[in-house]
Amino acid sequence: xxxxxxxxxxxxxxxxxxxxxxxxxxxxxxxxxxxxxxxxxxxxxxxxxxxxxxxxxxxxxxxxxxxxxxxxxxxxxxxxxxxxxxxxxxxxxxxxxxxxxxxxxxxxxxxxxxxxxxxxxxxxxxxxxxxxxxxxxxxxxxxxxxxxxxxx
Length: 152
Hints:
Mean pLDDT: 89
Number of strands: 0
Largest sheet: none
Shape: elongated
Distance between the termini: 25 Å
Helix content: over 70%
């Protein structure tokens, strides 16, 4: 590949026409089918495991992209809708019940033994935090990650 060819392709990729073309493909039936295909999954996995993928994972460019994406997402309607749905979900109610149960159990135990409210509160908060951490670690396990969309 010549330098001139690389420069031409890069210019097209970054142009409005190139962006519009890629967007149209992604939104087409063919693009949506490819997005769900085994071929794409294998391709993304191969990239992430390659030297280039690993280097990108650590790069400042990716960190800047993630920061910008997070900032945009924080202000998006999608986030508001997702939060509202979660607030009303059974999953949240079950989580809150588990946190309260752990908090109360630890609080009562420590208060019974020490008589110190402050120590009991701290113990309750630590117990609830432990439950939250275990839930987070469950989300980071491979079987849960495979259900989440991968974006790089």
